[in-house]
Amino acid sequence: MPSQGAIVAVLATAGLCSSFMFTLMVPIQSKLPELLDASREDTAWVVTSTLLAAAVITPIAGRLGDMYGKRRVVLALVAVMILGSVIAALSPGIIAIIVGRTLQGAIVGVVPLGISIMRDVLHADRVDAAIAFMSATLGVGGALGLPISALVTERSDWHLLFWMAAGLGIVVLVLVLWIVPVSVLRTAGRFDFVGAAGLAVGLIGILLAISRGNEWGWDSPPVLAFGLGGLGILLLWGWFELRIDEPLLDLRVAARPAVLLTNIASVAMGFALFASNVVYPQMLELPVETGGFGLSLLAASLVVMPSGLVMMALSPLSGRIAQRTGPKLLLLLGALSLIAAYGFTLAFSTEVWHLLVANILIGAGIGFGYASMPMLIMRSVPQSETGASNGLNALFRSLGTSTAAAVIGAVLATSSTEFDGVPVPTSAGFTLSLILGGAAAIIALVVAVFIPTRGGYTDAHPALPAR
For this UniProt entry, which residues form the secretion signal (predicted)? Predict the structure, then answer.
């Protein structure tokens, strides 16, 4: 059997690949209408499609992993991502690009599955540190991917980004086949296809309303139809899931206080994270005449990049804290660090190094917070539910980031002014966005205080004994 360190390294590489998919289009997002000869409304789907696919596939993939083998589903998700990357790399038109980007979103499901694999195959005394390391890749992949994408975009054909994604996917596929063992822990029963379809349709409706509300209008018929329709379908889905013997997600397990409160905190933490991803790069890149710092995309990405490096550096510490005191303290520390980051920026934002310090605090906050969530979940659910429960937690984080994208985007758009004929955000818009990000971090802190310290499954690492 491969060494435990090799297994963790391979799964972490898969996590890096996942987070890279979300920074892939950032350098060229504003140029897509010109590159694809399409309207800005149409090119927005290049990003929205990946978000929707990730949110829908993640909880479903988690359940499939519990039933049919987590390694098998990881391989399938990576293969789908490779296919999507090749389709996008070969296409000059917007339709195929959107199809490719939708398929790329499947890779996001490997993170909760990878964390569940760790619980199945690692020694108990290594699980917390491995989960912290895996969670850190969510920030590291984005932090490293942004300058790489910017550099490629500035010096080569933008389609090369998709070939890079396909190549990375092939490397991950080979490494998983070679290193990651087959998990023998399976959940018996039949897959809930009706539940999967209901969850998918409901989520798509709500996420469409959130992600497109700024452009379509929050009170427009399409947004109201998608939002209220999606909410109604999810309510019916929940009623259905509680009445069948083999549900897609066991909502009774999801309603346990430790699981429910962790998922609520995940929404707030996801909002606080993505608010920083929207605000800080724009503050760094806007012209000096408008109150920004006038940095290039590459220079701005280098200022933001340390947040991901801090997440990686803190992962061993996160594991040790979780083993000694439990993961709840990690979530509290993460929320406090995010509050400090937003508070520092509200007080000091006149120099580039001020934003550098804020991003380091953001990295510490997300590093601690994202490491704690899967630990809290897996201490609170039976081993047969780890894949689905981690997938559901990832979904709640996605809801937080999606909501932040819509809300912060609306705030900056409504408080913009024109500069050289182009609307740019004002300092008042940035201030309100920072306040909202800090408020989300405060909500995460308050919710974390009430999470029970014992979830009921603290000894659930039966695959291998502790040393």
Answer: none
